[in-house]
Amino acid sequence: MPDTTKRRFLFLLGSTRRNGNSELLARRAAGFLPAVTAQQWLFLPDYALPPFIDQRHDESYLAPTTGPEKTLLDATLAATDLVLVSPLYWYALSTPAKHYLDYWSAWLRTPNLDFRARMRGKTFWAVVAGSGPGAEAQPLQEGLQLTAAYMDMPWGGYLYGNGSRPGDVRQDVVAWQAAEGFFGPASNQG
Question: How far apart (Å, rounded) are the C-alpha atoms in residues 112 and 109?
């Protein structure tokens, strides 16, 4: 695994609740990155994207020049590592996390952006919290792994924590301990 001191981690918080279980678990894992590792944390609900409209057969997408889409695009392209942080809702990502990924479809088709080429080689990670042992999150994990493969991005790993009420994930001893080395050399989950 590459040296984390020269990397820039983008944490995309997909919960509709601040400081939820998935965020707590991600912050725990990030706390073990070297202090010199750049980290950017974006709470996706703060970046109100308009509803995604698939126009790939109608017209060309234009690169955003202002607003939340430009902020998210710029942060995405600047990162070496993207960490999608989401609670498990109905066996899938939260709405803000899925909405952000939908915009990748637009960016893939934006002339002169070269989104796919610029994403190639960035490491894709996931930190998820749900209210069960984790088997029900397998479709979500597999979907994100397929996304990484499609984009030619290395899959960094998947960290799952069990927790329903705020703060419950701290009681998931296995996940809480796994967070310590999640982004480190020993990390190769799922």
Answer: 9
